[in-house]
Amino acid sequence: MTPEIQILYVILWMFILKFIQISIWPALKNCFGEYSYGISYPASILLFGLISWYCGILGVTIYTALIPFAAILAYYLIKKEYCRENFQGKWKWDLVFFLLFLFMLEVRYLNPSISYAEKFMDHAFLASVINNPIIPPQDPWYSGGFLNVYYYLGHWIMGCLAVVSGVKSVVAFNFILPTVLANAGISLYATGKLLLKRFAWLPVLTMFLVNPSFIYHILSGDSMPTVMWESTRTIQDTITEFPVFSMLWGDPHAHVISLFNQAFFIFLIVFAYLRWNDLKNSGRWIITGLLSLSLGSMPLINTWDVLIYAPVLLCFAALIWWKTKKDNISGTSPWRLFVLVPAFSVAIYLPFYLMLNAGGIEGIGIVNTPTDLISFLLVYGFFLLIFYAECFKDLKERPYLIAFGIPFILAGYIGPGLLAIPVACLIFRRSLLPEEILASIGLLIIGFTEIMYLKDNMGDQYYRMNTVFKFSLIGWMMMGTSSMIFAGKWLEKRNYGSCQENRKRSVFIAVILSVLFSVPVVMPDLNYGYGGKTLDGMEWLSNMHPGDYDALSYLRTLEGDITIVEAEGGDYKYYSRVSSFTGFSTIIGMPFHEYMWRGDDALVYQRTDDVRKIYENRDESFDLMKKYNMTHIYVGDTERDTYNLNLPAEKLKLIYNKNNVQIYALN
Fold first, then answer.
1. Any idea where the domains of the chain sit in the sequence?
2. Strand order in 661-666's β-sheet?
3. pLDDT band of 520, cuts 50, 70, 90
4. What is the pTM of this model?
């Protein structure tokens, strides 16, 4: 793929993002004022996701999803909302958005390969959506099955953006993380502007902070791959990712895509908390609608998020109600937040729940192996340092608050004991500032993962891995945002950032940006030798597996309802590469994933045995391919290394034969 084509794809993708953003911006102005321009970025993507999702249900072209945005844009053009004076000062929002987008695009340009971890899975979902944008999307690893066993909306949104922008899936894959980072950053920047007089950019650092374990491994002289891996596996048998790791790791998995929606939701609840009583009735309806859209999207993007953010919504609604009663303000009761947001968030995606065919949580268990002190501090120590510094004066005035942590420590749960003390301090202040509420919630989330876990089918050794993995990332977003707000207010009290400091601040920002865009260049290879300096995530195959590269490139040109047999040899290996790179359904791919999603009823291992029979038993081969509605069969080096090939040649038509790869169509 030529550089010119890749540049064109970048322009087309950014044009679509800008088009949908600018169209809905005027509709948010009366509610959000100066913040409307920025938050219309994530709001427009969620709205596009919702509209395109219903296009998929109705079976109409995804381009239809752009019609409402075009109509809104035309309406506001007639209303002369896009005049020059309305755009004054808005360049700062665009600057934040596009700087973050281009930074992450640079990272992906240098490390673009769809090659390891969950990348095969994420591209497979993306390509499946682009090939056939229906609801529910087809499962490329389980022929005849659909992705109604998984939360797929993030991949759906990105796939539909690729459809309407005309970007190929192997390039669109590398646009996902830039889009996520830019939208998360713009919401965090809006939260900073809402809560800080200066230093509004500080909350954006939530996406760039590393944990102490990362620094420890750097200082130990470990290689970058070791630093990356070990810093997120510090707590035994769990995963504790943090946003910048996820971005550099380069895997646009569901929990990573969800970060932009989390940041957006945090802004919305903080804005509602501060401004609810001052808004007009129309403004409250707009917030109600956006909160419903954001909360309603969570189960479809990354279901674990809604388990936390739904209670968080009710917590903030209760606090708004309390403030309303305290100030004796009539006519502003937040009943919409209590009643309509939960109801609307379910209603707007109700067909998803009716189609859902996934296993749920099997219950709640007690953690019997709490994290040791050193590991706990290596993961959460930075935030504890910030919060204890913030609460130092509280502890001097009320030393008895230390007692809140003692029962946990005596019970062997040292981590929750350390967390309980700053939570008690912040609550006893009774000032109920947004950053204090977010900090308390973040700390409580982490405390929960140390005491309890949600039961799933990960087995005895990794019994709390998913709970820590998914909830700690939510806790990170809460604690990161609040800690940066605390830091910003400390700086404001010391008069940093005053008018006489403007020049120094400008120089500082310039240095930060220079370092930011230099980091991807000077960092060690994060692509494990697969090659870079392209946005084509499949390009690495041309060097590592040239036969497959040419064959897959050929397959990607085919149209129609194609299904294809390929070798199966386990998860996280160079198997399932045909279905992953094309989005075409195969009989079985990544079997452990399918077993996790579908359980025993999936007959995963029966399918595995049938694939072997297809390649090795000519008497059964053709009938088994027809059983699974296969249209093609792939024979490359991987298939030859895995099976003793004995195909029924008389029933197959050779349609491709190059570089030791053959592709057959069923007669």
1. 3-355, 364-494, 545-666
2. 564-565, 632-635, 661-666, 652-658
3. low
4. 0.94
